[in-house]
Amino acid sequence: MIQQLRIYEIFEKNKAAFHARFRDHAARIMQTRYGFRIVAMWETKFGDRTEFAYLLEWPDEATKTAAWSAFMADTEWSEIKRVTHAEHGLMVGQIEDRLLTSTDYSPAKGRSLLA
């Protein structure tokens, strides 16, 4: 089991629209079509920057890579991004993507965080 941490810079001016898009569309498509296991989601502040962070869980790296490729090529998701960008402007700035590997002394080592 591996975890993936995604951190998106989001903007105060269209933060509500970003959250609506992620909640109503991205998360739905990720989970129902491509098997994404979303463990948790947070909004955070880092200095003056507002961030949206979420944790995903995957059985292995190959599954993660295949699911992300399929999601990014999804025609409904592409159209939703196009429409929301036209309506609200740029909704995501910098994206950080981190693959988390448990240490040998981690309480989560070898088990699902969803359990």
Q: Which terms would index this structure?
A:
single chain; 115 residues; alpha+beta; Alpha-Beta Plaits; 3 helices
Q: How does the major sheet shape up?
A: 4 strands, antiparallel
Beta-strand percentage? 25-35%
Estimated helix fraction: 40-55%
Q: Count the strands? A: 4
Q: What is the domain total for the residues?
A: 1
Name the average pLDDT.
Answer: 94
Structural write-up:
- With 115 residues, this protein is of the alpha+beta class.
- It has a single domain (2-100), classed as Alpha-Beta Plaits (2-Layer Sandwich), CATH 3.30.70.
- Helices cover 40% and strands 33% of the residues.
- It is built from three helices and four strands.
- It has a four-stranded antiparallel beta sheet with strand order 2-3-1-4.
- Strand 2 and strand 3 form a beta hairpin.
- The radius of gyration is 15 Å and the shape is globular.
- The two termini are 12 Å apart.
- The mean pLDDT is 94.
Provide a quick synopsis of the model.
With 115 residues, this protein is an alpha+beta fold.
